[in-house]
Design brief:
Layout (H helix, E strand, L loop, with lengths): L1 H11 L2 H16 L3 E3 L14 E6 L8 E6 L25 H8 L4 E7 L17 E5 L11 E6 L9 H16 L2 H7 L2 E2 L2 E6 L2 H16 L5 E6 L2 H5 L11 E4 L2 E4 L4 E3 L4 H4 L5 H9 L9 H10 L1
Antiparallel strand pairs: 1-6, 2-3, 4-8, 4-9, 5-6, 7-8, 10-11, 11-12
Helix pairs in contact: 4-5
Amino acid sequence: MGRLRSQVNRLSQNDKHLQKYDAVIQDQVQKGIVEVVPDEDCTNTLKHYILHHGVLTPEKTTTKLRIVFDASAKTRKKNESLNESLHRGPVILEDLSGLLLSFRLHKVALVADVEKAFLQVSLQPDDRDVTRFLWLKDPSKPTLKKNGRVLRFTQVPFSMISSPFLLAAAIKHHLTKAASPIAHQIADNMYVDNMITGVETSRQADELCKEAKTLFQSASMNLREWASNSSEFLQNLQECEQSGAKTMKVLGTSWNFTADTIFINESPNLSSEVTTKRDALQSVSRIYDPLGLFSPATLNPFRNC
């Protein structure tokens, strides 16, 4: 309760942030993502409470306030965290460089992501008590015991060390069951909650988009923020389904899909005065370029040092 009080005190410095924070939690309760733990529910002896804090991203068009749950935070008594008690699971993600290479081979590139993907995978009822967390019944009142309540996740939270495997396994299992050529293509071109693929014509793009949305809807998932270098394909999409920006990140690389070009953003450190070789190497090393597309430019500073 003491940690909850300090969290609310920080948010109370800006009442608007506190209201947004509470609105996100109330929305998750209404959607069934989290549930209120009944006072008389003492059947499960295995319990764990997760710390949480808010992250504001005003520049985002969708989620401006995101609540981050810290499953790596250790308890005071045993000095253990939830993540230390969970099995990570095998890495079944596709090769990142391979995805980026195949992404550039198609005439029509297609990118989309699964909305709140981790929260679409259900937790077994017996496992939900290890995802408990505390919040207030009424944020406008003091953080007393009578004003606190216990919530727990019914879906897989993003913060758990096993979450990436659980999501990837669920998506691959669902797409494998569909056993269609498009389902197979999507399964080979998924990276966590991002679909990065392509086709040869705008007509094929329309067919893939239609079947992809149907496939994910049958798994209670929604493919959103579609982007493509084909203006003809984008014209057939509703505005709410599109990314809404001219540039976006594709597996960490910046992509202008209107011009169909990959670029790097100039780092502030690169434009500042560099006084030592160490500064120069540190600045160049910050450029994320997994395929080495910008090697002709980035190798020169290393050569000169």
